[in-house]
Amino acid sequence: MAQAPVYLFTGPEAGEKNDAILQLRVAARKRAGVLDEYTFYTSETKFSQIMTLLLNESLFASGRFVVVQGAEQLKKKEDLEMLSSWIASSAGGSSILVLVSDEISCDKKLESLIPKANKQIFWELFDNRKEQWLVHYFKKNGYSISADAVELVLEMIENNTEALKSECSRFFLCFQPGHQVSVEDVEKVLAHNREESAFTLFDALSSAGRSPAMRLETALCILQKLRLSKDSSGVQLIAGLTYCFRRLRSWHQLIRENPSPSELDYKIRGFSSKKARTQYQNAGRLWSVSTVGQILALLASSDMDIRTGGAALEDILLQGMLYSIVLKDGEPLADSFSPLHQELFF
Quick check: 98 and 37 in contact, CB under 8 A? Predict the structure, then answer.
């Protein structure tokens, strides 16, 4: 029986997940030859449009390789019916659909459509495995790294191998092959020249022991740095914050189900590192489950406002969004800023 051409990859470990997608892509190219390749996000593209693309034959390629991020959003009956119909009619074909989510699981009806052999959860690595991965990554590129430096890197960088690859590749530009990376090198390359991101912004928003005014001030400074960067994108920034607040929702679920989680409980939910636990414990004190839901709704509406409002309003919309998260727990601001708000942001 021909294999269904659909896969479901879930879980927080982005690096291994992306490696698995790459392996599928390479195998598909070898098997089918030229492929049309696409990546879509459920927050940006209707699933019906993606299905229409898959159903129509390509004029210049043997098939299509389609990756859909945000598979946890696929719940509508009509979307699942279209997917089921496509799977049934496309077994053995050249096109492949890969559904991806940072969540541990997706809608049960969606999961039931995917063959067991084509589903995989990519758990966050335990700390000892991350240490091994990091040492091997440096060795593979012709470098070594001290044990203390490994520990510091893991404390500073978002806990998945994709983020580790991105950040640690900087060392290869700063030092000659054969160099052993030390704690001093890590502080110089990562701490002193650390780029801001949605993750550092979330860290500032949820900083423990700081007043709301101080957290907002720091967050607005980070936002300004991000907006001045070459790759500034309000939509991508909101996507990163949405990921963080979804993880916070998972943290609340974990603590509600088990007030004293075991190491395995933490790992299953993607909080195996001490840094992540501390960060989300602090965030959990600031924002309750209901508040997190309100903030996620705010992020979704801000995303829509930016897409429809154009670049002219992007900065003020992002500033207002941060103001609402810190000082109003995600409650939407008034349709127009008062003179007080305008004075605060300009």
Answer: no
Residue 311 DSSP label: G
Contacts for 31 with CB less than 8 Å, ≥ 6 apart: 94
pTM of the model: 0.59
- 34-59 pLDDT, tens digit per residue, is 888 999 988 888 999 999 988 886 66
Sort 205 into a burial class: Cβ within 10 Å, 0-12 / 13-18 / 19+: buried
Q: Report how far residue 178's alpha carbon sits from residue 291's, in angstroms, rounded to the nearest whole number.
A: 50
Separation of alpha carbons 91 and 103, rounded Å: 27
Sign of the torsion angle spanned by Cα atoms 257, 259, 265, 268 = positive
Q: What's the CA gap between 112 and 75, in Å, rounded?
A: 12
Nearest to 128 by CA among 263, 242, 236, 252: 263
pLDDT at 12: 85
* CA proximity to 23, closest of 67, 74, 71: 67
Distance between CA atoms of residues 136 and 132, nearest Å = 6
Place of tokens 């998945």: 160
Looking at residue 124, the DSSP 8-state letter turns out to be P
Q: Which of 75, 98, 114 is nearest to 17 (CA)?
A: 98
Give the pairing type, strands 6-10 and 96-100.
parallel
Describe the chain by its helix, strand, coil percentages, rounded to 5: 60, 10, 30
Write the CB contacts of 87 (distance below 8 Å, at least 6 apart in sequence): 4, 5, 6, 113
If one counts every other C-beta atom within 10 angstroms of the C-beta of residue 73, the result is: 18
